[in-house]
Amino acid sequence: MINKLAKEIHENAKSKGFYDEPKNIGEMLCLIHSEVSEALECDRKDKHCDYYTVSTILSYPNNEAFKKHFNESVKDTFEAELADIIIRVMDLAEHKKIDLEIFLKAVMRNNSLREYKHGKKY
Questions:
Q1: How many CB atoms lie within 10 A of CB 115?
Q2: Which of 75, 54, 57, 78 is nearest to 66 (CA)?
Q3: pLDDT tens digits for 101-112?
């Protein structure tokens, strides 16, 4: 499921012109970092959106109504910025032909075998 979603994200990015020029991996990583910074600022400003609100807006069949309410209630919230982080990571993974799902499973298994706090203070 993760790889399928990554492919869909990547295809959308290509269709919107984000791959018209060769990609710079450093730039792509910096854009991921910028989304992390945006999430931090949203949390600092207590800009959040709840599940009920986003699921209600997502159910709107009319794209104009969806976009209006999305921009008013979901855009520029902590939760939306977390989604942007994942979207950028998945786009990069698909661009580099990385099977993100298998790597997630391997790293999660490894993390489950590590000591408490991975042997660190924090």
A1: 7
A2: 57
A3: 999 999 999 999
